[in-house]
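Escalated from tier 1: iron/sulfur cluster holo job.
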Amino acid sequence: MKLALYYNKIEDSKVQCYLCPHNCIIKPGSTGVCRARANMKGELYSLNYGKITAIALDPIGKKPLKNFHPGSMILSVGTFGCNLKCSFCQNWTIAHESFDESSDIFDVEPEKLVEKALELVPSGNIGIAYTYNEPSIWYEFVYDTAKLAREKGLRNVLVTNGFISREPLEELLPYIDAMNIDVKAYTSSFYSSICRSSLDDVKRTVEISAEKCHVEVTNLIIPGLNDSMEEIEELAKWLASVSHEIPLHLSRFFPRYKMRDVSPTPRETLFEAKDVAERYLKHVYLGNI
Ligand code: SF4
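Tier 2 regenerated the structure:
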């Protein structure tokens, strides 16, 4: 457990966290929406500092990052918790567990993780990817580790939903080399009703980050929810206005978590969406096809 960054003390020993745009007001003994930050006696603590639930040396293409050190490997780590509540979560077993529910957690200090990453360099490792669950909600651990990893010549990669406030994002970006950011849909209604968050905040993260590091974007196409070609076209147009060099990954949905009643995305939809997006973007890839 570690004292958190980005919060204010308010009345009656409550705190307000402003790490992400939820800006949770948390009373003593409670956690925020992400279930990873808790008010203990009027101070905010990160519950998942150094708590690892998954670790693997993955191909970089699995993040997915296609145009960043293609063919390399990256030491990938994740913890528990998420600040979004997407009913279609493809990683729900760790993203929606809480500290008490996670059975296979082990502790690691930033120094040890960086040491491990360096040991794996001869196996093709280029650095550390903060992935599997949402990395911004173990911000303090990612920040400390990324800084150290950078000093040792390693690369840092975030695989994120992009729902982070501007100030913490800008503080972290100097240590980040590449990001894959999920843009889950291109309508505000999808974000508010399905993910309980907001499209504009995610767009801001893409726009700020693309100026500072390599960015690729993933869009999971879900039948009946975000699969209209008009929506794909709007997404591609906006992304091209940031940079038409940003790779877009159009990914196939499979029924998971609370959305098991929707069929997998038809392959034809993905092919059509790729054709539409390629009118605006240089690099469009299909995932899980
Ligand atoms: S990081 Fe967690 S506690 Fe902080 S505002 Fe976001 S959801 Fe709430």
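Helices lie at 92-95, 110-119, 139-151, 166-172, 188-195, 199-210, 229-242, 267-277.
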